[in-house]
Amino acid sequence: MNLLQSFIDRFSALPERTGETPRMTVGNPQEQLEQFPQSWSLVEQVLAFAFSLDRVIEAPTRIAPPGSRALTLGQDDAVKNRDAFLIDNEFAHIHNPPIGSMHLTVPSPLRELAMARHWVLPHPLAGKHGFTPDNVFAFAPRNESEVEIAKLLLSASHAYALGRMRMG
What we know:
Layout (H helix, E strand, L loop, with lengths): L2 H10 L27 H11 L5 E4 L9 E5 L16 E5 L7 E4 L4 H7 L3 E3 L12 E4 L5 H18 L7
Antiparallel strand pairs: 1-2, 2-3, 3-4, 4-6, 5-6
């Protein structure tokens, strides 16, 4: 089984996100306005996982609020697919306290599966003005099981950025 199919199977098994969708800003910048983690330790788990991924380098983000932490690939990792990146070599960022939400790239059909289960929303600029159509917003984790879903989203985005998933 190839990696894309493995992710399709895992995303297909995602449960529906419970509760109401958090209130969001109307346009750009896209921000979650409520339902923040009760404990920042949940986001710290996501951060520890994110920065343990192969070849990920933390760098200043050029597109998120101050204090947000960007996941980038080094200059040696050639960017072959622009749709896998938010900007430059940045494929994801985790928003600053107290929020803990993320923007990241998630390829189709994974993106559609995550949206159908209410884990992500498309970015308002996705597919416009040179921005990747694969740019999504992922809600902040509210509990331990949602930390695992955040890790799954990051794993898929990371594999996509590294070109490890065959698309089509």
